[in-house]
Structure to design on (796 residues):
């Protein structure tokens, strides 16, 4: 049952996740180029890909990612700014890594693609230029950031003896040795270097502050300086330890750091603080300290804060990875559990033994808890789904010459992972349609008095046992005249058909309907909105459209939270059991003549006329015969979307939870049922497709 | 030490290693071309290696010129930048 673990496969999975977080970071950077957290995230994703790739001997991948990563480190360290070109190339690099991942042995073409990206990156960001004030050198690939256990950040203040150059104890090899221990941030100070006229060029007037983060321990750090002459001034202090309380993110204030480092005295600080302006500037202006020392102190502050933050996120995300197959199996098992328990419950009731009965009841509680937990494990935030479209929207908008902003709302809303998978294509199609047909070009928008940039909003929120989604644009809306024309053309409606706006809008869901004047690469893929509706209904969901000419369109989706287990109400129609999902049931009422309205399939319900369907008649073609059921039949009032209908059934039995099984070929083309559940006594109950039935009722009524 | 003044008075082309062993000669050459007022360009195209002493010298030159409102330009500065980048020092004057 447990699949064998191929390291390469695990790596691919890991990288796929890292690539999506890289993409997310790049997209966010595009919106806000100053978001240093995102540069950091992009860097970290690449760094981890590189490290794991190297470990598995994927040299092409390692080398390529290394260059890209270096450019991002360069930007992260403030040596260069984020440009649109960087985002472009970063995305290209992301795609290239994906291609490299898909092949065992990269061919020449692929390598050439990679080289082209690297070349362009290096042209945009020549790595040797402007590398000023401090250089971060990533640690050796094996030491990834994720392993923050037992790491300490040391501040090493290095004031070499002025004879340092002569004795050959050059600081450079020492820095190199420190780099081998971990991640290093080097700040060199030249403020003691006099003008050249006063300089004895043989004397070393330079000094350094080096921040080293390593798990090697204090002795290893001190050992680096073991052969250094006694007249060097070396101070080593731990400034951050992973054992420290991570919740305490605040590191020392700039002034405190400078005093602690001996750059200024406490008195200097007190004087500067009195002037109430920005402390670093004041200290520099008053000549207490050189700008590069303030800079170094700021970097120290930043580094420690970042380390503490990443440690905190590491601690809060105390997670393990589980393959989705395993989770699927768990959810299925729990589903079977539920079914088996129903049998047990029935047998216990038959046996009439109070002890067995109470055991069965306690078991039910436990199964319910287990089920809820299994469900939760299987839920993922819709952000996973939504953010995947950022790139699509960006690229499509570009291709179509449109300017579109994608706004995501309610991304924390959770859905069953299986549902998320099956929503990918339908949503993709809806978004394509919005971009292609709905949203206008900037010129058209300006002419229509709108903001040149169009907005596409994807929103999700809980609505009972469902998740509601809305995908709306502020484009031109549906041209109902064109829809009508096309529908007549296609023979979907007659020429004299009287249809309201909403009904015309709904026509886009009719099979084989397309309003595109010409087929584009974007939306003309031979898949219509009918397929989208079909796919969503197969999930037990529903979709409808709202559109206003000139103002835009919205797709409203209702998606069940989970596929695996449903709770429903069992009813009987001519000895066959049917089940309606609990979330759709409103009430059960008795059918009698007083609430029927003539021969029409309409009934009075709470002062309103509501259409109804007689299931006996619908499924079996038997016209109602009151004698057969003793004259008393029940109506199940159900709602779907904003419609309410009545379903006439013979009997209403009980509530029931079960795994829904798909129907075999035999039921293909049977409208009104969407699946089946196995009952405790082994019989089959058919799931009623409430959405379908309610549409049907609305049409025939 | 092979150091010579370029065709333009304000450009100095340094040659050979710019390191601790050669530092005095280079310093003297630079001081000489700094005699006149104005900006100075130091061309490192002939310099095959540079160490911290060399970098420190260029920083000191930059400081002196800055004090008299002149500027230093260091061209062909790849090696200069590299050593400064490594040591976390700003490669003053590098273009």
């Amino acid at each position: 049952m447990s699949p064998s673990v191929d390291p390469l496969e695990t790596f691919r999975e890991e990288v796929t996740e890292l690539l999506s977080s890289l993409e997310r970071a790049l997209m966010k950077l595009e919106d806000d180029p100053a978001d240093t957290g995102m540069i950091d995230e992009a860097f970290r994703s690449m760094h981890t890909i590189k490290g794991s790739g190297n470990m598995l001997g994927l040299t092409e991948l390692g080398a390529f990612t290394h260059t890209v990563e270096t450019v991002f480190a360069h930007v992260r360290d403030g040596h260069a700014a984020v440009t649109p070109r960087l985002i472009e190339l970063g995305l290209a690099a992301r795609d290239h890594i994906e291609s490299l991942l898909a092949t065992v042995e990269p061919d020449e073409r692929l390598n050439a693609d990679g080289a082209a990206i690297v070349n362009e990156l290096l042209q945009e960001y020549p790595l040797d230029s402007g590398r000023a004030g401090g250089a971060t050198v990533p640690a050796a690939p094996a030491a990834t950031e994720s392993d923050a256990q037992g790491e300490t950040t040391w501040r090493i203040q290095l004031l070499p003896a002025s004879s340092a150059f002569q004795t050959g104890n050059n600081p450079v090899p020492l820095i190199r040795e420190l780099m081998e221990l971990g991640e290093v941030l080097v700040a060199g100070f030249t403020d003691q270097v006099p003008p050249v006229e006063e300089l004895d060029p043989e004397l070393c007037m330079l000094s350094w502050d080096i921040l080293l983060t390593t798990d090697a321990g204090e002795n290893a750090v001190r050992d680096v300086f073991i052969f250094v002459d006694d007249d060097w001034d070396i101070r080593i202090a731990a400034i951050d330890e992973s054992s420290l309380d991570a919740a305490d993110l605040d590191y020392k204030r700039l002034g405190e750091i400078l005093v602690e480092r001996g750059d200024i005295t406490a008195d200097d600080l007190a004087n500067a603080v009195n002037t109430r302006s920005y402390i670093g500037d004041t200290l520099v202006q008053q000549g207490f300290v050189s700008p590069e020392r303030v800079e170094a102190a700021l970097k120290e502050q930043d580094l420690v804060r970042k380390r503490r933050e990443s440690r905190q996120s590491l601690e809060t995300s105390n997670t393990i990875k589980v393959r989705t197959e395993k989770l699927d199996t768990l959810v299925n098992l729990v589903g079977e559990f539920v079914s088996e328990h129903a049998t047990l419950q029935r047998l216990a009731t038959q046996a009439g033994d109070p002890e067995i009965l109470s055991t069965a009841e306690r078991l039910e509680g436990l199964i319910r808890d287990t089920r809820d937990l299994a469900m939760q494990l299987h839920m993922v935030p819709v952000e996973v789904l939504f953010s995947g479209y950022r790139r699509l929207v960006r690229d499509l908008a570009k291709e179509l010459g449109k300017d579109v902003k994608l706004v995501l709302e309610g991304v924390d809303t959770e859905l069953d992972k299986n549902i998320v998978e099956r929503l990918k294509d339908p949503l993709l199609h809806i978004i394509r349609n919005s971009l292609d047909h709905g949203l206008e070009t900037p010129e058209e928008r300006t002419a229509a008095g709108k903001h040149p940039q169009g907005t596409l909003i994807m929103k999700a929120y809980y609505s009972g046992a469902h998740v509601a989604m809305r995908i709306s644009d502020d484009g031109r809306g549906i041209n109902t005249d064109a829809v009508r024309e096309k529908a007549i053309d296609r023979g979907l409606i007659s020429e004299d058909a009287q249809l309201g706006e909403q009904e015309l809008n709904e026509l886009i869901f009719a099979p084989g309907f397309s309003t595109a004047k010409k087929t584009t690469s974007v939306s003309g893929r031979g898949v219509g909105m009918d397929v989208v509706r079909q796919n969503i209904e197969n999930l037990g969901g529903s979709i409808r459209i709202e559109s206003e000419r000139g103002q835009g369109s919205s797709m409203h989706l209702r998606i069940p939270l989970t596929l695996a287990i449903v709770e429903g109400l069992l009813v009987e129609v001519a000895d066959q059991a049917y089940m309606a999902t609990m979330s759709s049931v409103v009430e059960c009422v008795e059918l009698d003549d007083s609430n029927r309205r003539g021969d029409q399939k309409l009934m009075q319900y709470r002062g309103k006329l509501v259409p109804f369907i007689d299931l006996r008649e619908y499924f079996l073609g038997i016209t109602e015969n009151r004698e057969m059921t003793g004259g008393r039949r029940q109506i199940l009032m159900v709602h779907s979307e904003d419609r309410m209908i009545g379903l006439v059934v013979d009997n209403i039995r009980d509530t029931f939870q079960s795994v829904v099984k798909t129907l075999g070929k035999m039921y293909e083309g049977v409208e009104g049922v969407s699946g089946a559940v196995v009952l405790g006594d082994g019989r089959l109950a058919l799931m009623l497709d409430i959405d379908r039935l309610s549409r049907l009722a609305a049409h025939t009524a | 030490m092979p150091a010579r003044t370029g065709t333009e008075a304000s450009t100095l082309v340094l040659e050979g290693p710019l390191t601790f062993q050669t530092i005095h000669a280079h310093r003297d050459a630079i001081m000489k071309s700094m005699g006149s007022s104005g900006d100075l360009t130091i061309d490192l195209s002939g310099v095959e290696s540079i160490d911290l002493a060399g970098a420190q010298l260029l920083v000191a030159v930059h400081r002196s010129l800055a004090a008299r409102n002149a500027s230093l330009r260091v061209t062909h500065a790849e090696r200069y930048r590299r050593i400064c980048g490594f040591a976390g020092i700003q490669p003053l004057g590098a273009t």
Notes: Chain A has five domains: 7-130, 137-316, 324-378, 381-560, 565-700. Chain A has 23 helices and 22 strands. Confidence is low (pLDDT under 50) at residues 128-149, 515-526 of chain A. Residues 324-351 of chain A form the longest helix (28 residues).
